[in-house]
Automatic annotation (TrEMBL):
Keywords (A to Z) from UniProt: Hydrolase
MF terms (GO), sorted A to Z: hydrolase activity
Superkingdom assignment: Bacteria
InterPro entries: Aldolase_TIM (IPR013785), GH (IPR017853), GHL15 (IPR029455)
Protein name: Glycoside hydrolase family 15 protein
Pfam families for the chain: GHL15
Amino acid sequence: MVGMRQPGTRAGRAYACALVAATALMLVLAPLAGPLGDASADPNTVGPAPRSPSAGTLALDPGDWDAQPDAFRGDWVVMQPWEYDRIPALKEQNPNVRVLMYKDVTATVSNACVTGPTGKCDQDQEILPAGVGYWSALRDHPDWFLRTAEGDTMEWSDWPGLHPMDITNPDYQQAWTDSVVSELQAHDWDGVMMDDVLTRLSHTVVGDAVSPQVPDDAAMYAATTSFLSNVGPQITAAGYLAMPNVTVYEDNWRPTLEQWTPYVSGWEFEYLVKYGFGEDQPFGDEDWQWRFDLISWAAEYDVPVLAVTYGTSYDEAAQLYHRATWLLAWNGRTGASMYVPEESGVSFWLSGATADVGAPAGPVETPAAGVRLRPYAEGVAVVNSGDETRTVPLGGRYLVRGEPADRVELGPRSAAVLSSALP
């Protein structure tokens, strides 16, 4: 669930915000072009900043864009729909960039509103973070809301102001589609990032309310299948990317992606290497493994994934763990890693989170227990997902803390992205 931060910290955000054969994955992406510039060029040379096609920017909260002069350096950007006037500059700086508009799927937002004639907040604002407005739906389509057995509308307690909708309702599905496609066509968007695409009832609800329309996890999965199978193909048929932010788990990610991927263009996947927005414990062992397996599966089938981790701007260890995990799986063509800092007003283009070592130059290796390494054209990515410190032979000479070395020591649940040492 991504959305909009309240002042201060991203953790306080309150709103709004097969194996499938490759031939069956009818994706609408054009092939990624090669780099615009040479990342190894003299940094004092006047010219465009080096690009990193395998990184991207997820900038959704107030103040984010004031600190993102480097967003064009990645090939993927996700931003709120009212930020459309930034698209021309991004595409002038990087013609390959894909800019996605944020929209919530499963909920609508009551506090995305303006004051009406009554003096109360009872009208939807012009541009919304959801596909359907809360106030217009409440007035004209009350049947679109999930309701309790007593007929009351519901509200997520973990995201106050967000109200779950009956996403199986065909009129809601079509209204959502028509609204989103109309906004995509109005500006030079490449597609939509569809938030809250759920496989389970994973949001807590005020009063622990339950709706008989979607009473359990199985019903939630069926509801999302209905929505994606109808809406995703309409968006792609209109010439746009449909990129849901999917909530999956160790025991359901593979069948879910195998079933749903043919309906869409790719996926956003949050919490790649840790939960939370601060300096939380990174995943290790099995928790790390299934997430790595997910992005590796997507890379194998050329399914773009936007892999997101939240943290702080000063936690370089988390940034490197995030980035190196992504580089172990990346196929050199599709998707991007996105590290989102907790703080307001800081650049997302952090050195650890966007470390660039060129194109993949070989398969993943296992030089030590719990360790994976992958050579790149200009360096190496190495991850220790275990709980013991390992000294890792690198199979070549790389810059370790500024000095050429052929091995590196990695603590538990840590990583490195190392540049090649000069001959």
